[in-house]
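Input.
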Amino acid sequence: MNVTVPLVVGFDLDLTLVDSHERIISAYIRALGDLGVQVSAEELTPHLGMPLSDTAVAVGAAVDADALVLRYRHYYDEPDAPRTLEMPGALEALRCVRAAGGRTVVVSAKFTPAVHKALAEAGLTDLVDAAYGELFARDKATALLSEGTTIYVGDHPGDMAAAHAAGAYAVGVTTGANDEAALLAAGADLTVADLDAFTAWLPAHVGMSGPALRLWA
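Output.
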């Protein structure tokens, strides 16, 4: 069955559109250290993209959530913190959607001001039509639905759950801590190795006419 709908592509932020893992890990290690917990980058990496308090629980850090948030944001915002970079292919992916007459939306678990800061630092702000923060996994569906999102791209199993909860086509990208098997198990309709592969896939697998797309079901 062919269904024509407006093209709105949503993207997760960290390790999907931007590479901020060094900044995140540095902020976590220093913040948890202030609270008496020693943790390694290797322990933190599998949990990137999750809310702060969830990550703390995942690495066994029994700390006050509010104190962790305050210390983390302090270190994350320091002028000498590692820079947030564009993920390879991010500019091209956003431009591809725009070239098709579509809209781009970012939905992240990150603190909302940090979402905008990361997009600006990576040079992506002008290619993003709307951005939301402080939403994780299925909670992202609220923002995706409000924007009429038809495709959602992310690197985390929670992103696949969000896409399906919003009735969007779920694209898993294996640029984060989760491999193809994990993303497929979480419900990915498609997995790609990187955003370059997504950009190649988009025009080949959806029919585009102005600001609309045709999905083949």
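Residues 21-76 form a domain with the DNA polymerase; domain 1 fold (CATH 1.10.150).
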